[in-house]
């Protein structure tokens, strides 16, 4: 036995190395994680579980994750942006250990070592699973670990009290980690009741057993609900109201179809069904019915909510849950094929052709290819991108995935997923990890200098609004921030969404009701830190906040600024946007006047109305030298710098301004304007910079 275990450990090392490599390529942090990190900071600083000091709004849905990060920072001194990815790695190791334990302990399992090896291969070769190994700083892999552990305990030790207790605590931990945890817990309890009646051969339950499974879960989750209501005044987290506008089945269907093709769910689910049939026929073991039940019901839930902002994040637990039954299915089919071959005398002489393990391995080759190759192509193609691209779409074609498209059926599958992903990203669904990585990298590099800012310099009544509230305000913890999409604001989270589903943006549907921001007293817009006065004065105001550190900011309320910052070394500049446009001639005149500067375009519109800032702006640049185009833009012949006013614009009185920084290469032609998705362009203009 020791020799067998040693051989198995050696055999799985390549799989673990593969997962480690894929995870290192896809290592990332995301802006959303820093929302929870700010709750962690405020908790440790004595302000409670709040985003803004004094405002009790539950703008997170990962209670246990927040408490863990707080404990790690408070006890070990490791900041959450450093601890969170490595906690995910630890939970990844736990998930793999739970999977192998499940496989090794499954009774009467034919080809146990081979089955475990195949199952691990399916998980470790999954680029999607690898993406969430670092987790972006989010709680995804922790949730996966507790779900896998709970199912494994129910599969192996549902007849023992400690097994049921472990499963119950795992389901409770999962429910404290992600909001869909109670749904999966309910499915587990229902399945357990039916399976135990099957095990006993009678329509009666041992209520003591059921109590061991339900009671610990109910006590912990009930306590959390009571805490939430007592602390926040709500039974559900604010994130539920902010993100759930209405059912969005059309987006969810496209999301799941893309996932099924890219990750091979269309192969893994039937193989799991084969394993269920075989185990049920021989042992009346319905464990894999639980796996399929959880996944199918969860897919219905995902379809209803429209998918997710991130690439297949809510599906992360599918792969380790499906890996073992899919592997059992392959081993069983391999045995069936070998049995058929043995009946043919001429072929039976070829020994390998009558070997069940050989046929299982032959089946494994196409399964692992069709379930992992497309994921890998998308991962590595995305990993090459090292710039911030809004709504990145990766198109698989002969130039970047010729090896993939040479496989039978892959051209058709790739074409389908190309279309699905292209439509999804336009509504901020299924955005690739690299887009979140580059956005976070830029934000961290720019804003983390505020960590060195002296405390107490920002006025208590300073209020800012923003559409992305993670990284910037983690490093500006004293600044009150109103999330324009309502994640941390109860009023905006409940403002009705009137636009149809075809115009929605995932997790960005809510907006402030008319007059709400004025009512809340929004009065400041803080810019990235500057190391010199000259840099700081690119804004309207600047204030020193530390050694060689300045805080540039703007405000429409000059009197408030003078009063709130009285007695501080405040420098007030002239209106810098007016300076940019004063005395200059716009290169484009249309709905907006567009001014060209050395490294920026300034858009200006007098008598600006809300409908003038709502449509997205398109900005297409043709370089003087086509070789200057980013690699992923060469096929289009122009660079795409499309943007939203909410990210790059501002308003002063009745005048709207937007500034877009330009690339460093020489530009030949500028084409810009605004458009309404699905309808067309509102206005457009062209300026030839150089022939």
Write up this protein:
With 691 residues, the chain is of the alpha+beta class. The chain has three domains: 2-425, no CATH class; 528-573, no CATH class; 584-688, Sandwich (Immunoglobulin-like), CATH 2.60.40. The chain has 28 helices and 15 strands. β1, α21 (471-474) and β2 form a beta-alpha-beta unit. α12 packs antiparallel against α19 and α13 (265-283) runs antiparallel to α14. The longest helix has 28 residues, at 356-383.
Strand-helix topology:
Blueprint: H1 2-25, H2 33-44, H3 63-76, H4 80-105, H5 112-124, H6 127-134, H7 140-157, H8 161-175, H9 181-200, H10 207-232, H11 238-243, H12 249-263, H13 265-283, H14 287-305, H15 318-342, H16 345-348, H17 356-383, H18 398-405, H19 410-425, H20 433-447, E1 463-466, H21 471-474, E2 480-483, H22 490-493, H23 516-520, E3 525-526, H24 533-536, E4 541-546, E5 549-554, H25 558-564, E6 571-572, H26 576-581, E7 588-589, E8 593-596, E9 600-605, H27 610-613, E10 617-623, E11 639-640, H28 645-648, E12 649-652, E13 655-661, E14 667-676, E15 680-688
Parallel strand pairs: 1-2
Antiparallel strand pairs: 3-5, 4-5, 4-6, 7-8, 8-9, 9-13, 10-11, 10-14, 12-13, 14-15
Helix pairs in contact: 1-5, 1-6, 2-3, 4-5, 4-7, 4-15, 5-15, 5-17, 7-8, 7-9, 8-9, 8-10, 9-14, 12-14, 12-19, 13-14, 13-15, 14-15, 15-17
Number of strands: 15
Strand order of the largest sheet: 7-8-9-13-12
**Count of individual domains:** 3
Bulk shape: globular
Helix content: 40-55%
Summarize the main sheet. Answer: 5 strands, antiparallel
The termini sit apart by: 76 Å
In the predicted model, the low-confidence regions spanning at least 5 consecutive residues are: none
Radius of gyration: 28 Å
Structural class: alpha+beta
Could you tell me the strand content as a percent range? Answer: 5-15%
DSSP helical segment count: 28
Mean pLDDT across every amino acid position? 89
């Amino acid at each position: 036995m020791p020799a067998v275990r040693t051989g198995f450990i050696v055999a799985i090392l390549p799989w673990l190395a593969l997962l480690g490599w894929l995870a290192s390529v896809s290592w990332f942090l995301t802006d959303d994680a820093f929302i929870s990190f700010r709750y962690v900071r405020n908790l440790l600083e004595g302000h409670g579980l709040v985003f803004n000091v004094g405002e009790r709004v539950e703008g997170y849905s990962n209670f246990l994750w927040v408490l863990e990060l707080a404990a790690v920072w408070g006890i070990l001194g490791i900041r959450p942006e450093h601890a969170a990815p490595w906690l995910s790695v630890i939970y990844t190791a736990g998930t793999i250990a739970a999977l192998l334990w499940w496989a090794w302990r499954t009774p009467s399992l034919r080809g146990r070592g081979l089955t475990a090896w195949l199952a691990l291969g399916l998980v470790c070769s999954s680029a999607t699973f690898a993406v969430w190994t670092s987790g972006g700083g989010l709680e995804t892999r922790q949730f996966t670990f507790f779900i896998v552990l709970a199912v494994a305990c129910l599969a192996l030790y549902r007849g023992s009290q400690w097994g049921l207790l472990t499963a119950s605590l795992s389901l409770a931990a999962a429910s404290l980690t992600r909001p869909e945890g109670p749904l999966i817990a309910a499915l587990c309890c229902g399945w357990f009741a039916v399976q135990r009646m099957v095990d006993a051969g009678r329509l009666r339950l041992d209520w003591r057993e059921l109590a061991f499974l339900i009671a610990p879960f109910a006590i912990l989750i009930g306590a959390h609900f009571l805490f939430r209501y007592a602390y926040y005044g709500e039974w559900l987290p604010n994130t539920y109201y902010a993100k759930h506008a209405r059912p969005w089945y059309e987006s969810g269907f496209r999301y799941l179809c893309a996932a099924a093709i890219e990750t091979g769910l269309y192969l893994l689910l039937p193989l799991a069904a084969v394993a269920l049939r075989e185990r049920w026929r021989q042992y009346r073991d319905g464990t894999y019915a639980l796996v399929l039940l959880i996944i199918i019901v969860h897919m219905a839930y995902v379809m209803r909510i429209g998918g997710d902002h991130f690439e297949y994040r809510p599906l992360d637990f599918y792969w380790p849950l499906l890996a073992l039954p899919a592997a059992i299915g392959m081993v069983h089919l391999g045995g069936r094929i070998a049995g058929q071959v043995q009946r043919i005398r001429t072929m039976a002489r070829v020994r390998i052709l009558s070997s069940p393990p050989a046929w299982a391995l032959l089946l494994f080759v196409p399964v692992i290819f069709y379930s992992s190759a497309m994921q890998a192509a998308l991962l590595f193609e995305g990993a090459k991108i090292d710039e911030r691209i809004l709504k990145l779409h990766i198109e698989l074609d002969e130039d970047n995935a010729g090896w993939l498209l040479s496989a039978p059926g892959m051209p058709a599958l790739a074409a389908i997923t190309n279309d699905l992903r292209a439509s999804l990203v336009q509504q901020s669904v299924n955005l690739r990890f690299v887009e979140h990585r580059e956005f976070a990298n830029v934000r961290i590099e720019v804003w983390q200098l505020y960590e060195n800012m002296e405390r107490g310099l920002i006025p208590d009544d300073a209020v800012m609004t923003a559409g992305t509230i993670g990284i910037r305000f983690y490093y500006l913890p004293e600044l009150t921030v109103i999330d324009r999409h309502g994640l941390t604001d109860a009023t905006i989270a409940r403002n009705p969404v009137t636009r149809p589903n075809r115009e929605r943006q995932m997790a960005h549907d809510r907006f402030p009701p008319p007059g709400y921001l004025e009512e809340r007293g929004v009065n400041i817009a803080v810019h990235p830190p500057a190391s010199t006065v000259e840099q700081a004065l690119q804004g309207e105001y600047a204030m020193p906040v530390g050694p060689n550190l300045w805080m540039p900011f703007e405000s429409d309320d000059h009197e408030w600024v003078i009063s709130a910052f009285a007695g501080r070394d405040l420098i007030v500049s002239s209106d810098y946007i007016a300076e940019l446009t004063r005395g200059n001639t716009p290169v484009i005149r249309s709905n907006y006047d567009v001014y060209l500067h050395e490294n920026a375009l300034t858009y200006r519109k007098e008598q600006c109305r809300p409908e003038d800032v709502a449509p997205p702006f398109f900005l297409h640049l043709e370089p003087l030298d086509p070789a200057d185009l980013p690699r992923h833009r060469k096929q289009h012949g122009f660079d795409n710098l499309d943007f939203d006013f909410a990210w790059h614009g501002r308003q002063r009185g009745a005048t709207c301004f937007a500034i877009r920084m330009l690339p460093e290469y020489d530009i030949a032609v500028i084409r810009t304007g605004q458009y309404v998705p699905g309808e067309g362009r509102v206005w457009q203009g062209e300026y030839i910079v150089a022939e």
